[in-house]
Structure formats: C-alpha cells, structure tokens
Amino acid sequence: MGSGDAPAPAQQASKQYVFLSGAISGVRLMAKEHLGRYRNSWDCLRKIVAQEGLLALTIGLGPTLWRNCVWNGLYYGTMAQLDGAAGAGGGAGGLMAPIDNPFLAAARTVVVGTGVGMMATCFNAPFDVVKSRFQALLPEERAARGYRATLPALAAIARSEGPRALYKGFVPKALRLGLGQTIGLMVFQNSMAVFGGAD
C-alpha cells in the first residue's frame, strides 16, 4: 500500500476495535459490579469477546458519539467565536479583543477555555453516564433496564434515579476536560503559528 492510499476497511475496523475494546475493558475493570471478575485488561477483553462476541467491543459507540459531538461542537465552536481564527490570545474576528502581551493572552485563554469546557461538560455529561452504563453492564442487565439506545436510556435513568444521576462525576470530568482541552488547544494554536500553519 502506498503512502497516499487509504487504509483497507479491515485495517480501519481493527483500529476502531482497539479503541472501543480499551474503553469497554477499562469501564468493566472499574465497575463495582465486576470487581474480582477480571485479572487484568487482557483477561477482561478475552472474556468479553468469548462471552459476548466480537460486537460487544462496540458497546457504547452511540453514547460516545453523542458525548463527543456535543462537547466538541460546543467547546470548539464557542472558542472559535470568542477567539477568532487567528490563534492564541484572541484574533481578528473574535468577540474578545486581541492582547499583545503573550502571558496575559495565555492566561485569558486558560481561564476562558476552562470555563467554556466546563459549560460544554454540562451538556455532554449525561451522555457519558449513559456510555458508562452501557459498557459496565452485561447484556442481560442492559436489557433488563431497557438500555437499548442512547436517548431512551438517558430518559430511563432520569426517570428512575432523577436528573442528578446524569451528572455523576461531573466536577472532576469538567475540570479535566475544560483545562486539558484548553491546554491542548493552546499547544495546537501555538504550533500552527510556529510552523507556519496559521494565516
């Protein structure tokens, strides 16, 4: 295969399975329902495939897509509107005025980005809870609770446990996403400026 060729469908599928298998085995290893069931990640992965089939590695894909699309759309869309297209520190076209001092510009980006990230987490956290429930429960447990699709599962959790259940683990998740993605955004913006990718 040449350097410009697209990967074969089998290669693309294997990359997806590697990502999803890591996600489901990680959730299962941490779930209190499964303590002592698995020795390590490989044992967990092997048992999931043996007992539930290869498609079990895709459990939680729907809620993961909802979670990521909501968060990324809100975070990067809002940051683009605030910061403009010119990179770190506010650029032409953004709602925030440019700052010439690079340290003040970076500090503002950290504060604003963390706040925007925390706001975006308010909207994606329920989907993260649904994803974790899908991945933590065995097929018969998911069926018994009626967890077959993302939005109906979201509604079922809210009805049976209350809206607060959709925000379990919110504070650490919001801080990790808000601050972590802001640092990543700043590294990307500054790398583009250094390597000539920015206008």
TrEMBL record:
Solcar repeat placement: 13-85, 104-194
Membrane topology: Multi-pass membrane protein
One cellular component term from this protein's GO annotations in UniProt: mitochondrial inner membrane
Main location group: mitochondrion
Cellular localization per UniProt: Mitochondrion inner membrane
InterPro entries (alphabetical): MCP_dom_sf, MCP_transmembrane, Mito_2-oxodicarb_carrier
Keyword terms, alphabetized: Membrane, Mitochondrion, Mitochondrion inner membrane, Repeat, Transmembrane, Transmembrane helix, Transport
Pfam families: Mito_carr
Alphabetized PANTHER family for the sequence: MITOCHONDRIAL 2-OXODICARBOXYLATE CARRIER
Family: Belongs to the mitochondrial carrier (TC 2.A.29) family.
Protein name: Uncharacterized protein
Organism: Gonium pectorale (Green alga)
